[in-house]
UniProtKB/TrEMBL annotation:
The lineage of its organism: Eukaryota, Viridiplantae, Streptophyta, Embryophyta, Tracheophyta. It holds the Pfam family LTP_2. Residues 32-105 form the Bifunctional inhibitor/plant lipid transfer protein/seed storage helical domain. InterPro entries: Bifun_inhib/LTP/seed_sf, Bifunc_inhib/LTP/seed_store, DIR1-like. This is Bifunctional inhibitor/lipid-transfer protein/seed storage 2S albumin superfamily protein. It comes from Actinidia rufa. GO terms for biological process: systemic acquired resistance. SMART domains: AAI. Residues 1-25 form the signal peptide. It comes from the Eukaryota. GO terms for molecular function: fatty acid binding. Keywords: Signal.
Length: 113
């Protein structure tokens, strides 16, 4: 059973990477102009604000990055592979905290093995 679960997880990860590369989970008609890792690098100033249980407000550099990247890139990151040390719920709050009026991202939820 563990071997089946591991193979299924591997296939699921490959599918997720493909969806992330295509920009799934965004508002229709909008695309992210950055790669997953390119967008992630630009959001490094946000790291302290999205750490689990963080009480830190996003710094100006983070908010500027959020506004520059836009909603499509934020959705690519939120719906992409898990990122160690990042709380996705906290990341979803960044646009509101940064006064960036983005539409909510569509969630791509997966059920665990």
């Amino acid at each position: 059973m563990k071997l089946f679960c591991a193979k299924a997880l591997t296939i699921l990860v490959l599918i997720m990477v493909g969806l992330v590369e295509q920009g799934q989970g965004q508002v229709p008609g909008q695309t992210c102009g950055s790669t997953f890792f390119g967008a992630l690098v630009q959001l490094i100033p946000c790291r302290a604000a999205v750490a689990p249980f963080s009480m830190v407000e996003p710094p100006l550099a983070c908010c500027n990055a959020i506004k520059t990247l836009g909603q499509p890139c934020l959705c690519v990151l939120i719906n992409g592979p898990p990122i160690t040390g990042i709380d996705r719920n906290m990341a979803l709050q960044l646009p509101g905290k940064c006064a960036a009026n983005f539409e909510p991202c569509k969630s791509l939820s997966l059920s665990p093995c």
